[in-house]
Amino acid sequence: MPPATTRLTQISALALAAAAVAVLFSLAISQILLGVALAAYLAAFWNRPRPRFELPSTWPPLALYMLWTILAMLFAPPVMRHMPQIKKMFVLAILPVGYLAFGPDGWFRHPVKLVQWTARAIVATAFLSSVTAMVQFARTYLHWQAKHQDFYDNYQLDRITGFSRHGNWMAFSGQMMLVLMLLGGWLLRNRQAPRNLWETVAGWAAAMVIGVALLLSFTRGAWLGCGIGAVYLLWHYKRVLIPLLPLAAVLGYFVAPGYLQERVRSIFENRADYSAGARKVMYRAGWSMIKAHPVFGIGPEGVQYEFDQYRPDMYIPLAWYGHLHSDYLQTAASRGLPALIFLVWFFVWVLRDQHRLAELAGDDAWLARGVAAASISYYVEGALEYNFGGSQVVMLWLFLLAVGYAVRRGATDSRVLCYHYRR
Fold first, then answer.
1. pLDDT averaged per 10 residues in sequence order, the chain, 423 residues
2. Fewer beta carbons within 10 angstroms: which end of the chain, N or C?
3. What is the separation of C-alpha 71 from the centre of its chain, rounded to a whole number of angstroms?
4. In the prediction, which pLDDT does 7 show?
5. Is 394 helix (H, G, I), strand (E, B) or coil?
6. How far apart are CA 392 and CA 26, in angstroms?
């Protein structure tokens, strides 16, 4: 490629790597850097010879999902109230741009080395965010103890957020969940892979700190997502440890502080937990929306405007009812059942690609394995939280997918990896 094209493609790759790290502490900076990466690629594409244009195999269901979102907007007037969803589609550009930026044909001289350093920076930033969150927790705990008020009931309304702003503890826990799975893929990688003692010690220390912060976030969906993702990792690396997971969970419960034990019991007990009661209301309302509008839904932003029309005739706990706390229910209710099919199709193909890459790649297969585990945890948490609608979590997940796809350069049989499109 000409020097100008090479420089532009390198800028695109570096901007995307920086955006992946920035999303952990500033959504605005991350989106600006994503815009730089996209603009640099488009500028490079105008030069001749043009960079090779490729798309992952996941582009058909993702494109259909975006198309159906637009149709849902048109069939649910007023159209203007759904316009924020157009802006959110910009976020989905991460996957195709990342697929190109970290591709095997040298946008960057050593794309896998770049994504390795990107992964390290993501883990380091998540570690610092977790330390910040633990300090926040200590201050909150001491505050309510000094006031002699119930800590549990007050804390679940105002939890730790780390570097996430605007009190978004769901974004913080979702991001830490994804990073913990990526880190798990590295820590549990095959024994034959090269290892550095100090990096390994630092990795386990970071995993412990991030894991503790995730527990203190009180986010039960993220706990469950991590548990299922851990089973996936252990199945491929340390199967003998899988039966020990339930035992470790039980032992951990009995040695945990009282507030964590109470949070675990809230999963099973019919106690006065505002979030559990609110979710029951949301799920019943969402099902009513689907039955009334099965094809195009009530519009991408319709839930927050029309919730009262579909609310069940029962006690409504005090909560925000702007979405339905489930990727799958929210998608079907707001965009229709076809959009749900496209979304699940996209999720399944992503997992298939990462799993195949982990089986075929060499020393860097842990990247794809960790991303596969992160995807599984993301899907599991998505059943209990609308994480596909929150930019901070979905952006980090898409950045990790771009990192996972980068290892296709080291795949032993590229013919099996039929997920690219050449123009």
1. 70 91 94 92 75 80 94 91 86 87 60 84 96 96 91 88 81 96 90 70 95 95 95 91 91 93 81 69 92 94 90 75 90 96 96 90 85 97 90 94 82 46 37
2. C
3. 26
4. 79
5. helix
6. 9
Token pair 């992503």 is at which residue?
A: 350
pTM of the model: 0.92
Per-residue tokens: 321: 């009812």
Question: What's the farthest any 2 CA atoms get from each other in the chain?
Answer: 70
Distance CA 70, CA 231 (A): 37
Which has the closest alpha carbon to 356: 408, 320, 393, 406?
408
* Number of neighbours of residue 320 by Cβ within 10 angstroms: 8
Query: Cα separations (Å) of 409 from 189, 357, 404?
Result: 19, 10, 11
Helix, strand or coil, per DSSP, at residue 56? strand
Residues 112 and 386: their CA atoms lie apart, in Å, by 32
The pair of three-digit structure tokens given for residue 367, joined into one six-digit string: 């990247």
* Residue keyed to tokens 């997940």: 397
